Amino acid sequence: MHAQRHGDAERRAVAAAEQRHRALAEEAPIVLLALDSGERWPYFADVDTTGVAGEPQTIFIRPMRRLRTGTRDVVAVRGLRDKNGEEIPASPLFRALRDE
Fold it and tell me: Which among 68, 63, 76 has a CA at the least distance from the CA of 28?
């Protein structure tokens, strides 16, 4: 079941359109791209509101266009920080793929 208060649909549509623009920005914290071409895909992201305080939160990353069948797609998240505020470096495997 899904319920909306008056005006929620309009606000959500505007938020999704704004996220699409931000998703394709060079400095976007999340990148969704086709591995074969490097083409970036628009997406929107939202946090699971059913999470428990103090526990890790799930972030849903939803493509705004259907991904192509038979291709490999990559989701990268940049600027992650640990609980002390220190930036989490990219893993060696990811660095190898990214810097190739």
Answer: 76
Q: How distant, in Å, are the alpha carbons of 15, 40, 64, 65, 91 from that of 46? A: 11, 19, 13, 16, 24
By CB atoms closer than 10 A (0-12, 13-18, 19+), residue 23 is buried
Domain ranges in the chain are 8-99
Please count the other Cβ atoms lying within 10 Å of the Cβ belonging to residue 17: 13
Q: pTM to 2 decimals?
A: 0.67
Instruction: Divide the 100 residues of the chain into consecutive groups of 10 and give the mean pLDDT of each group.
Output: 38 58 85 90 86 83 90 88 87 81
Distance CA 65, CA 92 (A): 30
